[in-house]
Each structure stands twice: as C-alpha cells, then as structure tokens.
Automatic annotation (TrEMBL):
Recorded family membership: Belongs to the TIFA family.
Lineage: Eukaryota, Metazoa, Chordata, Craniata, Vertebrata
UniProt keyword list: Cytoplasm, Immunity, Innate immunity
CDD domains: FHA_TIFA
Subcellular location: Cytoplasm
GO cellular component, one term: cytoplasm
Any one Pfam family match given in the protein's UniProt record, by short name: FHA
Source species, domain of life: Eukaryota
Entry's Gene Ontology BP terms: innate immune response; positive regulation of canonical NF-kappaB signal transduction
Identification of the protein by name: TRAF-interacting protein with FHA domain-containing protein A
FHA domain span: 49-121
Amino acid sequence: MTSFEEAETEETVTCLHLTFYHPGQDEKMMFRCLNFCKREQVRADDMAKFGRDSSACRYSLMDTRVSRIQFSLQFYRKLHTSEYGFEIKNLSKKTKLTVNQTELGYLNKMDLPWKCTICFGDYQILAEVQEGEAVDYFETHLHLAEAPILQEKCLPSLQPIPENGISPSFFLSQGKSPTEIDENDL
C-alpha cells in the first residue's frame, strides 16, 4: 500500500460565508476589525458573537449604533441526523434583527436558513452555509459587498387571477364589472 492509500480520509469543513454591507462603510470604516482575507476556524462549542465590544465579540463592528453584543451564531448538530446547522440569536435589547423577513426581538432565536439576509439598522449581511462533515469546528469566510445586498424593488401589485384565466382588469378596461356565474349555467 502506498502512503496515499494509508492516509486518513480528509473531511470537509462546514463554512459560513458572510458578506457585509453598510451604506457608510467607506467613510466610517466600521468593518476595519474584520478579517476579509482568509477563512477562520471556530471551535464547534464556541458561540460566534457579533457586536461593538471587541472583548466579548469574535467579530467586532466599529460603530456606536451597534449593540455591545448584537447577535450570536451557534453551530449545532440536528437531532437524529448527521446534518449540521447554525442557530442565530438576537442579543440586542434595542435593535430588532431580521433574518429574511422574520423579525427577532431580544433573545429570540431561530435556525439560520442555508442562504439568507440578516439585517439590523443599516447593516445587511448575506449568510450562506457551505455544508461539511467536520464535528470539532467550522469555518467562517468574510466578504465585503460593494453594493447593497437588498435592493428596493418596485413590484406591481399582484392580483389573483380567476380560474377562467381572465384578469379583473380586463373587465374594468371594457367598462364592465365581473359577474358571478354558476358553473351549471355554462
């Protein structure tokens, strides 16, 4: 046998990719303490905290409007499976945190979707989980966005379309109003 055949199987590592954006990031430099260059290992039993207090938080945001500890991410193994996930918890008494469209108040927590947007104040963070098998640790890889992650979109109001496929706006444009017809009359 060769040394290649005898080598231990290399396990993949779960990696949490976090892309940060703030409209004032160029002037205020609130991300200056974050390491955007390389992946960082975090022990599985450590809680990854984000906030203003560099002594309590692994990831410091240099902004007086950010809570001392804003939120935390906890790595865990899902019950009765071999899958891993992250739980996000809002640790700010003053600022609500939203994960996609779900609002979390103080001490509220939820499972972090595999791809989601975390928002608080003017901060936008795109979180993407890259699955792995390692049990003892996970990795974080931080990125800086040049443009807003969330864009305001002007979507037309969605109106239900009836089963016959004719939009109510069709009748209104012809000066008629829709009438209800019994299906037996057809």
